[in-house]
TrEMBL record:
<keyword id="KW-0238">DNA-binding</keyword>
<dbReference type="GO" id="GO:0043565">
    <property type="term" value="F:sequence-specific DNA binding"/>
</dbReference>
<dbReference type="Pfam" id="PF12833">
    <property type="entry name" value="HTH_18"/>
</dbReference>
<dbReference type="InterPro" id="IPR050204">
    <property type="entry name" value="AraC_XylS_family_regulators"/>
</dbReference>
<keyword id="KW-0804">Transcription</keyword>
<dbReference type="GO" id="GO:0003700">
    <property type="term" value="F:DNA-binding transcription factor activity"/>
</dbReference>
<feature type="domain" description="HTH araC/xylS-type">
    <location>
        <begin position="227"/>
        <end position="330"/>
    </location>
</feature>
<protein>
    <submittedName>
        <fullName>Ethanolamine operon regulator</fullName>
    </submittedName>
</protein>
<dbReference type="InterPro" id="IPR018060">
    <property type="entry name" value="HTH_AraC"/>
</dbReference>
<keyword id="KW-0805">Transcription regulation</keyword>
Amino acid sequence: MGMTLMETKQCKSAVEVQDLSFDAAEKQALAQDWVAISMKQLSAGSYQGRIRQIDFENYRVVVEEQNQTIQKLGSMTDKYCTVSYAHIKEGGIRASEYRPDDNALFLMPGGTAFDVQILGNTEIVYFRFEQDYLMGQAQLLNPSAWAKMPEVPGPFDGVDRKPIEQAVSYLLHQYVAMQDSQSILGSKAIEQELHDLVLLALVSGRHHNNDRKPGLKARRLVASRMDKVKEYIDAAHDANQCPGIIDLCAQLNVSERTLQYSFTKHLGVSPLAYLKIHRLNQVRAQLINPINMSDGVTTIAMRWHFWHMGQFSQDYKKMFNELPSATLKRALS
């Protein structure tokens, strides 16, 4: 199985713990059923993803990581918001036009769209709250600054994250590493302490949703341009078209050089490479979850405008470290 429930525990304080592993970015996205999200693998190689999740009464703690660079696209529901940070091992993160600092918490309000790129081996820790609940707590702590929820995603800088990181580390040790749930210690106390640490850090941070940071205005322009690119690519594929570089330049009314710069700055790949990666990911998603059980590799590949099957198989194997036939066989078994 590509998604494995490694462990689920029900503790004395009704805390549910899950440890899930994945062999495809698409499966990792499907496991997050509370948010509209798609995930694309951008770097080549076998995929290994993991989500550790702890549900408390008023919030959820999620620790997510994968060995490959991914792009996460989607939108938050109005009900939930998240507060997150990146624990960087070897990689890094871009959230829309922002590259959060090491001392920042990142707020993703409900009802907002997101485009997140996460380099391989970067651990993301996020806390999911019901937005009305978080607003009530934030207004209690800092009424003047939290008269309303920020309308756009953004970092809160100047935060001392060390106590939060220590509490999360303790949680993972107690709730995931230990085999005997009876030996879990201080569940209610750590639940309350982590809750307070996150909210106090958030309301004490400096929210940056303006253009004062160096380079932010330029990154915001690139991000806006890339949003239009994604919309156009999706619309073109829905119309059974296969857009190319000239199509993208025409749609955005930019030069080929500006297009190259935008893709490299935003995603770290050329537009030509991204177009192929996007189609390969779409093929993989349909091999994992075939629209029609009778569809073979060739049918699905041609649906995404791959016409040279030999070259397609080579490209697919280079990207995902397995032949497309192996992906489909596993899905049908």
